[in-house]
Design brief:
Shape: globular
Order of helices and strands: EEEHEEHEHHHEHEEEE
CATH superfamily: P-loop containing nucleotide triphosphate hydrolases
Oligomer: single chain
Structural class: alpha/beta
Number of strands: 11
Radius of gyration: 18 Å
CATH architecture: 3-Layer(aba) Sandwich
Strand content: 25-35%
Distance between the termini: 30 Å
Strand order of the largest sheet: 6-7-8-3-9-10
Bound molecules: adenosine-5'-triphosphate, magnesium ion
CATH topology: Rossmann fold
Helix content: 25-40%
Number of domains: 1
Length: 242
Amino acid sequence: MNEYVISARGLSRHHGSGPALVRAVDGVGLDVAAGETVGIVGPSGCGKSTLLHLLGGLDRPDAGEIRLAGRRIDRLTETAAARMRRDRVGFVFQAFHLVDELTAVENVELPALLAGASRRTARRRAAHLLERVGLSGRAGHLPGALSGGQRQRVAVARALVNDPPLLLADEPTGNLDSAAAADVLRLFAALRAEGRTLVVVTHDSRIAGTADRLITMRDGAFVDETVLTGRSGGLGSLSGLA
Ligand SMILES: Nc1ncnc2c1ncn2[C@@H]1O[C@H](COP(=O)(O)OP(=O)(O)OP(=O)(O)O)[C@@H](O)[C@H]1O
Ligand SMILES: [Mg+2]
């Protein structure tokens, strides 16, 4: 059995060919232990989002292996990958990606309903999570009537509704002013404190304060790693660390 929540080896994802070839992710390896928060930083275009999409099964690698809780996820059929994402991975994106026509509580409960929860159970979980992110008073609001920070907190609640073992976030504070970003950062710090496993891509140096480990990417590769606490899993053996 693999002890890591997520484990990647020799992971590559290239786009285009010939002179237009882009090595978006180029032979990286990563082990994330249960309860660990890993921050991924690096300049624009270095491959952070591509890596996150691979780890969450939104995209497939050209080479390498990915295991989620010990199970290979890099060669699933599209249907199996969709089910895996729904049940086992929570995603938070820079642009929130809420459904504009649904209220906050309906957005949060949607993945639970899709996973087969009863209406009552889904609603109860969604209401509880909205309370958790400080938005119980906004449950009936449409996203358009919420601030950016509130929308992102709804997105975090939605990412948690199926209680996934892994939470992935891509620039979760990228569209927020600094007060709203601080709220979202506090939320991530609380998730870390409760033992969630998180991989967060960010330009925000304050994320460093909430991570156990920071990995720097450049040109598709890992070029630096800073361990900030004692609970880290470590880079994989094929990380290609410069
Ligand atoms: N579908 C695609 N086709 C061609 N090239 C792509 C595609 N997706 C990404 N790329 C390229 O792959 C590289 C990595 O992109 P990626 O989006 O992962 O970077 P990033 O580190 O997330 O950047 P940012 O900080 O700006 O979000 C970039 O050079 C990008 O142009
Ligand atoms: Mg990106």
